[in-house]
Design brief:
The structure holds 2 protein chains of 2 kinds. Chain A contains 3 helices and 11 strands, in the order E-E-E-H-E-E-E-E-E-H-E-E-E-H. Chain A is an alpha+beta fold. Chain B has a 4-stranded antiparallel β-sheet. Chain B has a two-stranded antiparallel ribbon with strand order 1-2.
């Protein structure tokens, strides 16, 4: 059997520091999209809680660290960082390697994301543990707040290079502002 | 313009796709006759005032919603999930 080498979607692209912001690649391991059948969400949530310790998240929320569950749209949750148990009441899809995840840390992270996404990222409305399916530039994806100055941005793996390009461009623009106005 | 997605809250219009009047949810019976089907498929009012439309939160949660809005004042009055609109 040929030994295949697993590549990160961001190999050769990340990590990167621009101005005050650092972009790092997150290897999330196993990912499973869970879609409970009609009326089964409570049962599915209980099953997840007992096996992985995280429930099915409420809309726009994420639960746990590793493994964790992320709300991923109407009636959908993404289970990240663990093998998904057998769930009778839900359709489960393997999404491992399907998503490219970047972590952004630094003082200008909010300012950078504000140029790319239409959602309100202020800490008063978008708190730790909040997540949103939204647009990042022209791509659909998911943004999660990890901390005061930390976010996680997720897009489909095929768009990894575009995401890095967009984030880099915006980060450079933001970093150039104090230099220009000085 | 912002639409109040019942799941996600107020979101930018860019995240939504517009389908048309919410009349699409009231599909006539198979044998309802030509007039009913003609109305369902082709004939739409063009109201100056309140209207109910179907929007898809395509760049968000993926839900179809029925939005009540006013075409004169551009006021968005209400939005509910399609699954709740068809009882």
């Amino acid at each position: 059997m040929v030994k295949l080498i697993a590549n990160s979607p961001f190999s050769k692209l990340l990590p990167k520091t621009i101005g005050t912001v650092t972009l790092t690649d997150i290897d999330s391991g196993k990912m499973t999209l869970v879609a409970p059948f009609k009326g089964q969400q409570k049962l599915v949530s209980d099953a997840l809680k007992s096996t992985l310790g995280v429930e099915f998240p409420a809309p726009n929320r994420t639960l746990g660290k590793m493994p964790r569950s992320v709300w991923f749209g109407r009636g959908l949750a993404l289970i990240i960082g663990a093998d998904c148990p057998d769930l009778d009441g839900a359709a489960c899809f393997d999404h491992s390697d399907a998503w490219a995840i970047v972590r952004l840390d630094g003082t200008d992270t909010s300012a950078i994301l504000a140029r790319l996404t239409p959602i309100d990222l202020r800490e008063s409305t978008f708190k730790c543990g909040h997540t949103a399916r939204t647009l990042i530039g022209h791509m659909t994806g998911c943004i999660t707040r990890l901390g005061v100055q930390s976010f996680e941005v997720m897009v489909m793996r095929s768009m990894a290079a575009t995401l890095v390009h967009e984030l880099t461009q915006v980060a450079k623009n933001i970093a150039a502002r104090p230099v220009i106005s000085a | 313009m912002r639409l109040p997605c019942p799941l996600c809250g107020d979101r930018d219009r860019r995240e939504f796709y517009y389908q048309g009047h919410a009349l699409m949810l009231e599909r006539p019976l198979r044998d309802a006759g030509d007039a009913a089907w003609d109305n369902y498929l082709h004939n739409r009012d063009n109201p100056a005032g309140e209207t109910r439309d179907l929007w898809h939160h395509e760049a968000g949660c993926g839900a179809w919603i029925v939005v009540t809005r006013n075409t004169v004042t551009h006021e968005v009055l209400d939005a509910i999930l399609v699954e709740k609109a068809r009882v």
